[in-house]
Amino acid sequence: MFAQQLPWLLFSLFSGVFVDRVDRRAVVGAVGAARALVMAVLAVLVWRDLASIPVIYAAVFLLGTGATLSDNAGQALVPSVVATGDLARANAWISGVRMVCNQFGGPPMGGWLFAVAAAVPFGVDAVCFVASSALVLSLAGRKAAPAAGPRSPDGSTARASVRQEIGDGLRWLWNRSALRMLAVAMGLMNISYGGAFAAYVLYARERLGFSEVGYGFLLAATAVGGVVGTVSVARLDARFGAATLLRAGMVVETLTHLVLAVTRSPWVAGLTLVLFGAHATIWGVVSVTLRQRVTPEGMLGRINSVYLLFSMGGFAIGSLLGGLVGHAFGIVAPFWAAFAAMTVMTAAAWRVMVPAALSPRATEPARSPA
């Protein structure tokens, strides 16, 4: 887990600058081809019984490095092919498809393919990366505008340094209280989440008694909730507003850790994960849509990179901490730690996450008092 998420801590901000400088479709397509090669090599090594733990760490690190580019560019692509009024619906369906394929279809299929032969799921994954790369490269839409650089004395546009462009993105986000608050909250939530689920496969086997295929179906429960969130998020947002949905999401996530800490029932765990999946989709759609609507197109890569640094970097830190806690205190201890952390965070964020803080006015730059 940590090896796969570590690249977000190392490269996320640099990837954001790169995504703002080049054609984002080309980025997603090229990274898909590179990840296909990594998976193909891993499939061969597994087939030849040459895949050691260091080899697997290296493979997932490379996949995670590619994700810092493709995930960022993928989010930045959406506003260039979707009208502003359709962003929420588009993000909801993208999130729903990801949930269905990654967690509903993928894990049971992966468990079945692994039972056929250990190398097969890695080979299938390589083919899927090639197909996804071809689909994105065929996508119609305008090329994202490059980030504006400072003017040189002769009036031409000079390219700013990487450090300067990163600083511009950080300052832009920091001066918008709503976006800053969501980034920090996401980071803290993912530290807790990553810690709790770092050894999830061991929890499912030792605590709930699942087999490999059963573990895949347990993951699919989250995807079922994701589908529910996909089809309901637009109506819920219109009726209750972003602040209420985000508050409710923090409560759901807090209670998820509590239930998984105390239950031994696969059915209770599965139903809890359905609710958690709905929350995760709703939270993600609300926050991503707000970000896409207010961020200039030429800065989307850098602003996304800060969010992804907080969210995926938080997950990486949490995964490492969760593994250490689980090893020292038992497989359930990370869920108790996550429950305690989320209880404190929810109480602290409750007063801040109000409609006024998430209004369009809150996305304007903070001003110094006269």
TrEMBL record:
Q: Taxonomic classification, please? A: Bacteria, Bacillati, Actinomycetota, Actinomycetes, Kitasatosporales
Q: List the protein's name.
A: MFS transporter
* Tree of life domain: Bacteria
Location in or out of the cell: Cell membrane
Show where the Major facilitator superfamily (MFS) profile domain sits: 178-370
Q: Which CDD domains match?
A: MFS_MefA_like
| Keywords annotated in UniProt | Cell membrane, Membrane, Transmembrane, Transmembrane helix, Transport
Q: Which InterPro entries does this chain map to?
A: MFS_dom (IPR020846), MFS_trans_sf (IPR036259), TM_effector (IPR010290)
Q: What Pfam family is a match, any one?
A: MFS_3
According to its record, how does it sit in the membrane? Multi-pass membrane protein
